[in-house]
Amino acid sequence: MTGRWQMVAALTLCVAIFSVNWTVLNAAGSIITAEFSPTPATEVMLAYAYPVALLGVLIPVKGRLSVLLWGLAGFGLVSAAGAFAVTGGMLVAGRFGQGLASAIVLRAGFELARTHLRGTTWWPAVAIPAVVTLVGLNAGPVIGGIIAQYASFRWILLLCVPLTVVAVVAAALFTPRARPAP
Questions:
Q1: Could you count the other beta carbons within 10 Å of the beta carbon of residue 158?
Q2: pTM for this prediction
Q3: Which end of the chain is more exposed for a tag (fewer CB within 10 A), N or C?
């Protein structure tokens, strides 16, 4: 596997984490409601904070590795903060932060892939993460339901931290530092 495809694998790991995260708390809704007794408005915000913040992917971000790594670090931090939320509002803020950090990483990763992959290698590099996204969106509620049933919904958020560390290491190791020759 060449360095470029290792980069695609690292970016696909990020996409997998983010797509599962989009839907993972949906299965734990009743448990979250029992713990926080949120208002109906907070319940709606909890359901939509992550995908609305993902609209941040439309913000132009430079395709730099440092932006991607800082975004991943932010994702890990707000995931941990959300796991220790004591109110529904804090959990909503954590989910919004996760979505915004995901948007930054996705945009930076897309730009990095566009910079380092040209011609016929570009489309497989986009198709692989797209398929992983569909699988992750469907796997999220199953994973969330199992974790929430046997542990706590907080573990759903805490598990993001070691996964994010793995993604940071993979992205740092496998993303080329220099721009390819034209």
A1: 17
A2: 0.90
A3: C
